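REQUEST ID: PR-0412
SUBMITTED BY: lab tech R.K.
PRIORITY: routine
TASK: structure prediction, single protein chain
INPUT:
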Amino acid sequence: MKRINLSIDGMTCSSCSNGLEKYLNKQKGILNANVNLVMANATIEYDEKILNQEKLEEFVKEAGFKSLGEFKEIKIEEKSKKEKFKFIFFTILAILLMYVSMGHMVNLPTIPFIDPHTNTANYMISLLLLTICFMFYGFDILKNGYKNLIHKTPNMDTLVGIGAITSLLYSIYNMYIVFAGNHTQVMNLYFESAAIVIYFIKLGRYIDGINKDKTKEAIQKLVKITPNTAVVKIDGIEKTVTLDEIHKGDIIIAKAGEKIAVDGEILTGKAHLDESFITGESKPVSKEKGDKVIAGSMNYDGYIEYRAERIGKESTISEIVRLVIQASNTKAPIAKIADKVSGYFVPSVIAIAIITFLVYLIIGQGFGTAITSFVTVLVVACPCSLGLATPLAIVVSEGVCANNGILVKKSEILENAQKVNTIVFDKTGTLTYGKLKIAEILNYSNMDDKELLQLIGSIESKSTHPIGKAFTDYMEQNKMQMLKVQEFENIAGYGIVGKIENEKIIIGNAKILEKYKIENSHLKDENKLAKSGNSIIYAVQDKKVIALIGVNDIVRSNAKKVISDLNRNRIQTIMLTGDNKETAEEIAKDIGIAKIISNVIPSEKAKTIKYLKKENRYVMMCGDGINDSPALASSDIGVSVNSGTDIAMDSSDVILTKNDLGSILKLIKISKKTIKNIKQNLFWAFSYNVLMIPIAIGLLKPIGISINPMIASAAMVFSSITVILNALRLKNIKI
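STATUS: complete
OUTPUT:
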């Protein structure tokens, strides 16, 4: 068995990708084919003894698409205003067409130039021209319907195509009859049936296609984590090179404020590195000789020289990119209800229409009656309402979600969120705020807390360390004025020193007390703060400790209530974090999470999600940070908070824009009401077809009940309106 990933050109919608996938899987020698619309590629497992790449590309061509060779890079098509303008233009044309064709039926004012009674020719020609415009607009639907028909995999596009073309041709035929002198046939024109069906299908696809490139953009952003250039040391001389010019074993320099270019090992120097995008840990990690560094890490405050070890595709970032692409190319076994119904419905309707046509010819009813009945069956059964049942309910629900701070990026999420029985939470930045904050203050001085923090914060403002930012943020929030600092000094690995009004203030960790030979009589307090997961900051004045300050990543204010609500709804909650077990247990105990999985790296997070899914769980992953991207992509539903990095948000299916974890339960409730509404829509749409098709066939003619294509068209519109009104009820969801 061999696997190849081909880049595919020409796919515009899910019907395209589904049709290609079905066609490929029918071919001898292909063991499994998976077509990804978003990535525009096809992953094919095949028997290399029977097939080769050239033959596979022929299959793709036979299916109506084009292979661009092996998939190597992610390409994002620029969305122009032209596409939006085209949709708006055809919306206006659709309204105009309906007004011209049916306005006179409901006593609306007619346009004299195209009045069907006084200017019949102009009326017919205007309808024809408008309909031809829609035929060009929906050419992709017609083409895809044709391809699926000849490949024996008919879908809704096939039925829409047959119905639209038949309505058009039959209307042109009747138009000819009118020009021949039979003016009664002017009421037997059904151009609007062909055009409006195409418009509604394009409407759904336009909405679904708006965020098509989000996943590709997310992966491109992952690649951009690393810097474009690096400084290499060759024979004692520093030289700036691109990442492609770096080789294994090269000595690379990283100064304060610069990013690590490739994975490697520190040879000399010491610094604090921010690796939160990989580890999920918000606190900078102290690194020195012998320690490993990861590409993309930020050097906060030191100078290091490191040896390049893993470059290019071997780097940690490249591995994360590979995992995200792999997860994106793995389809969940989710089939929409409408697709399941149409799988049987579409070929059945085509067969019924053909049989009806033949029967009328056989019993001698004439070609006119036969073709009228054929068109009537197709028009009345045209799946406009069936096609609207799911996407319309989804669109309305997406609006409800947006109003509640929930951005849903994939329509199937609103169908599937109600299945969730397990929610996995990342800790840092998800259950916590992801920013270091002052948690506790033990004040041993004669100053009040405000004076004390003003003193310490003024000196910390001179530091680039994240702990310093916690103090400056506090001062900004409390509108505290900065004091003038003199003789500032940064002592790497220990802390900082500065003078305020000629008073020397020493700030740092416990090691700084040893350095300045200051007695530490607060070990008990230090241990107490440490057990709460705090980073400890000592403040010293006149060789006396004046304060102990605990800096921590604060748990979100509503995290405890959210977990309690989820548990009450019988949804299991799990904490999945790269943090140590002690810190994780402390937070989990506080907010009520019973199960903890700690000390995990990004690839293990994704494996954990996959393992949970194998236990027949429907898993939602809630996280932030690049380290969560593979797990978000591997889960059934990936959710990120607004404070998360752009990458995490773009890799997820849902973004909580109001930064509120309580929105998760709201999403699940909206999903339950949405799926109920979809089932109602499908029931009415399908029931309509079950009732109307026998009438269209003519089975009720003996009791005086019959319809023609015009009535069938009106009935189809009524069916669509019923579905639309039912879907709009979702606007009033109470959550």
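NOTES: Residues 330-336 have pLDDT under 50 and may be disordered.
REVIEWED BY: pending
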